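User: I'm putting together a teaching handout on how multi-component assemblies are represented. Below are the sequence lines for each component of a complex, exactly as they appear in our records. Could you produce the 3D structure of the whole assembly as structure tokens, so the students can see both representations side by side? Please keep the chain order the same as the input.
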Amino acid sequence: MEDETYLGSTQYRYFTFTPSKLSQIRQRTNQLATQHLNESIQSAIQAGDLSDSGQDLLEREPLTAEEELKLVSYYITQSVAICDHFRTGSAVKATTLIFLQRIYLRISPLQIHPKTLLLPILYLAFKSENGVTSASWFIRTAAEAGLTITREELLTPEIDLAMNLRWAFQVLHPYRGIEGVKLELLAMQAGTYRGPAGETAPPFEGTRDRIERACGRARILLTGPALCTDVYFLYTPSQIAMAGIWVQDGGLIEYFLGVKIKDEAVRQRLLKVIRECGERHLLATKDAPNPYPGLLLRLPQNGVPISVEIPPELKKEAVRIDKKLFHLKKPLKEAKGKHPPATDTSEEERRAKKRKLEKENRDKDDVFGGGGMIKRKQ
Amino acid sequence: MPTPNGSTPTVSSVLVPAGGEVADINQEIRDKYVKDDKIGEGTYAIVYRAHVKGTGQPVAIKKIKISSASEGITMDSLREIKHLQELRHDNIVNLLDVFVGKSHNIHAVLEFLAGDLEGIIKDKSIVYGTGDIKSWMAMSLRGLWWCHRNFVLHRDIKPNNLLYTMSGVLKIADFGLARSFADPGNENMTSQVVTRWYRPPELLFGAKSYGPAIDVYSLGVVFAELVLRVPWLAASTDMQQLEVIANALGTPTELNWPGVTTLPGYCIPNPDNQLPEVDLNNIRRQFPSMSINGAQLLHGMLRLDPRKRVGAREALESDWFREEPIPTKPQDLPGKKGKEEQEKVGQDLRRRVGHDERLDGGDLDRGKKVARRLNFGL
Amino acid sequence: MSNDDEYCPVCKSSRYLNPQIRFLIEPTCYHKMCASCVDRLFGNGPSDCPVAGCGKRLRAARFRAQTFDDIAVEREVDVRKRVNKIFNRREDEFATKRQWDDYLEMVEGTTFDLVNGTKKEVEAAEKRLREYEEANKTVIERNVQRERAEALAFMAREEAEREMLRATRKAAELETEEDKRELMLSRHAQLEALSNGDPEKAERIKQNYIKRAEERRRKARLDVETAKGIREGRALVLNSMLAKAGEEEDEEEEEEWEPLGKNVSDTSKYFSLLEEYPRVDWIDGFVADQKVAAGGYDRQDWYQRSLFEAFAGLTVFLPEDEDEEAASKSLPDRTDIMVVDVPS
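Assistant: Of course. Below is the structure of the complete assembly, with chains in the same order as your input.
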């Protein structure tokens, strides 16, 4: 019955893929966005809005899909920091990060820069998980961390975000499943376990402590670093939960599945999937090989919560990519200045110019805007 | 936020450039339906009857009004979409699609529903019997069971939200107040939910942690109303509501409801005339037209202490469903399934203004009187 | 109708000659004759009508008393009775008013022809009648059932109504009687108490009486309600039966009640919720808070949810890439965020 429910969920129907499919989607998004960008530059050239002669603009190295992914990943880590500042709790944080990942499946940073969406997505996640949240409170709390956003900037993208999310607001999180596994393990350890058909479990070797420790660590993993990987797209939440525990204590899971799944073939297949999830995503270290083709998100696990330590290589890459992005889009900004579209009213023009000015000011300091996203709490 | 083509960013061009996959999907969905005519309007949404282009299958399209783009998505629509996307069941209204219209409004496409139980109860020209009541109760309980099985509380069960299709199948609708439950971390919910006449005592006492028993109570009150054909526990203030409940079901005390005095809003509603909790015999006296099993079911659904109330699953096991007369088949149930009902559908699917009005309950309406057909000869 | 001048056209006897005389008619030709003539002429089997110029074949069994003074009316009523047995449809069976009116017109037309038509018209009308009967056997039968059920329901309603009135009357009677008696006793007792110098006792007795009177009144009201309720209850059940009677006979077996509907199960293949689980501090603490439990929060719901989420989709396996080799070739170099690409 649980499997039926899962198969009916939007998470399974819309946002679960094979690795190659996932990779395909990202490639396509990147292609479309690049195409679109070039077309716009093309028409700007033809309209004579650009100072440079067009050709070399079009021959610049485009942003690759990998670079896009890296940039988004960097902002995912930034988002973790923002969540911590807001004291969101696990549910909202997890939902925010997954929303961010899902949105950037079919949208490219070329179209909209991730940093502009971090706050609106967080706000949407608040709404979806908790209910009404005061926009004023949100804006104030953001300001405390040095992030300014207007009410309009916060709320206007919402409908499009929802559309990008395919109106699927529920995200099933693996960390909740850990509680369930823990319960059963504890019962098995205490000898009080009974299965669905009344069966009992073989005696458990180990203390209660062993279970609590493994599950506790698994929970930290799944409410932190795992959220910055692609596991949600590739595995079911139940499998991810098992993988999270397996990574801490493989024996526990092998014992557990031995009790729960009688069908040998199914159990082996499941173990294989769990091992794969654990090894390739959750445990992945810099030196571990990744036999999987395609664009996958993995971040090195040092066992340290991600908000404190962002892999320095990632940050360097992000800086580089952002600069590249900036330069790719610069001509269009120029064009926009010279040739305001016919639909502009004078009011819109003024507002647009103001925004552009603000952005330029921000960009002057740091490519990321605002002199580093978050003021680190000392 | 500048965009690739430099035009002033209307929201759609920011996140969903024309030709992007998401925009295409949205357009596709929009084109699937043809609007027929408007069947209702409220402050919250306009409801149209429409049909699927290819097949002519009737649907209802709820166009959600937002006063300005800066409102973002309302909580009502977010909740409804979020939960209806995941809850698929014969007795829960089917959300077919969601799309964004030209003027940037959210449109929710729902299956077409002919009318609701409130309409049937109030229209005295519609005659129904025990078998019909059983059928409606069974379908409502099944829908409710599925919600609770998936850990979603409806929080607004009343005759107005129990709609039926052209073939008589009952569906629970209006998930604007729904939310998930059972997560202890999330148990700080508002007690200002459920329309007053159907609101259980624990909510009137301000409980912040509650469970699926609230929906069962509401359905129990609906059950009584189906039998009596007038609202049973009507009151115009929260205090009065507690009095009415106390007089009909008994005064909540530590004796019949341990812990009730710790609820934030606890008080004794009828101090001068405190009554013990009603037992089965008392219910039988209040509803003499019911069989023992029926009265037992009703009693179980209306226990003061939420922990003592039956669950939806248990309710469905009641012998009442097995005894004569058996539940009527949906297609044989009474109800206006013709064109006049479209008015009703509009009314049912729209939302009333503001918080207080929602929780106010409907108004009493004396049904039409119908002359008996005289029969000469024979 | 009892006209002293009436006489039997066959034997010429009248009420004067035979005070017990009874006149009968036969619906074939509606000719009247006295009971003794009927017996004499048709007692041994069917015979021809003695009235000059008639000669129709009559039977003793068909003779009956005349209901209306005007024989034409009698005849017409008989025709209508017969026709309505066949043309027994109801307004709600027709989609539009026009269709209903058309049907009514058809019925009237046929009836008129039967009553007033020429031989040819009568024949045609009879034919129409027979054809309709053949074609609509089921509908006719159904409506017959309906009428029967309705009649039953009506009678039952009347009965219940009568009972209720009876109960009310009785209750009121008893109440006044009892009330009077008690009042007297109470007054007596009060006086006694007062004369014994105990005004408080008198007061108590008075209060007692008032309470008892209240109680009686309340009980009486309740009884009336009960009777009403029983009436309603019967009505509800009857309505169900009415609805059933009006339906076509379906060849269905009794279906067994399935609580969750057809083919829906709620058994988990992975777990079953135990009555008790080992202590888990943070949740135990939460539930221990009285107002949490009193509000209806059930720890079992949380366990259920955790277990549900733990297993949802556990053995759902995504289709694996058919051919990993092929898949990898169509994509760019494998990327791995943690491996920093040195831009080439």
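A couple of points students might notice: The radius of gyration of chain A is 23 Å. Chain A touches chain C through 76 residues (CB under 8 Å).
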